Amino acid sequence: VSMLSAYIRRRLLTEQEVIAAAIKAQGAEASAKFIDEVIWRSYFKGWLEQRPGIWDSYAAGLRQDLAALDGDAGLHHAVQAAETARTGLAYFDSWAAELIETGYLHNHARMWFASIWIFTLKLPWRLGAEAKRRKEEGGGGRGGRARGRRREEEEEGGRRGGGRWEEEEEE
Q1: 3-state DSSP call for residue 163?
Q2: How far is it, in rounded angstroms, from Cα 109 to Cα 71?
Q3: C-alpha to C-alpha distances, 23 to 20, 28, 42, 43, nearest whole angstrom
Q4: How far is CA 31 from the centre of its chain?
Q5: In angstroms, rounded to a whole number, what is the distance separating the alpha carbons of residues 169 and 15?
Q6: What span, in angstroms and rounded, lies between the C-alpha atoms of 134 and 167?
Q7: Cα–Cα distances in Å, from 31 out to 7, 19, 38, 60?
Q8: C-alpha distances in angstroms, 101 versus 54, 86, 139?
Q9: Distance CA 167, CA 135 (A)
Q10: pLDDT tens, 105-143?
Q11: 62 exposed, middle or buried (CB, 10 Å; 0-12, 13-18, 19+)?
Q12: What does each C-alpha distance from 19 to 36, 42, 43, 44, 73 come to in angstroms?
């Protein structure tokens, strides 16, 4: 677990630099799984870049989910409980608290988090993906909570547009 994704995403480090450093520190054989993950990340990023309609479809669905969130007090309450580690499900709340505190979840915890979000809590998957993305990119919530309001955001030269919840500091 390197926790380097944010640095690679922002190009503070390149994939080549990360792979070279891993090989230098641990050797090629010991670094093989890590190198596979870095290469997979690059491949999938390139695959998505060649298919902008996939992101556009996600962003349109997210806008619909956010509109539903704004109009449904029960849904808003359930999402807020999930995002602030207050679902009453100890395992889920521990992962949500870790994401709030650190801005990171290990791959397995991310999969379990998503599964519980969708199948147990029955919350829209895109709202969970957006909440996790926002926390990971922001380095954790540190007391922030979703207000359910959206704002349009342009990232990476306007390529990624879509709803994003604003953060409000806890008192």
Answers
A1: strand
A2: 30
A3: 5, 5, 18, 20
A4: 25
A5: 35
A6: 10
A7: 19, 8, 11, 39
A8: 31, 14, 8
A9: 10
A10: 888 999 999 999 999 999 999 999 998 888 876 644 333
A11: buried
A12: 10, 12, 15, 17, 47
Rounded to whole angstroms, the Cα distance separating 139 from 151 reads 19
Per-residue model confidence (pLDDT) at position 138: 65
- Residues in the chain, how many? 171
Packing angle of the helix pair 90-102, 107-115 (nearest 10 deg): 130
Neighbours of 119 (CB within 10 A): 10
Residue 53: per-residue pLDDT: 96
Phi and psi (nearest 5°) for 51? -130, 65
Report the alpha-carbon distance of residue 23 to residue 102 in Å, rounded. Answer: 27
3-state class percentages of the chain: helix first, strand second, coil last, to nearest 5: 65, 15, 25
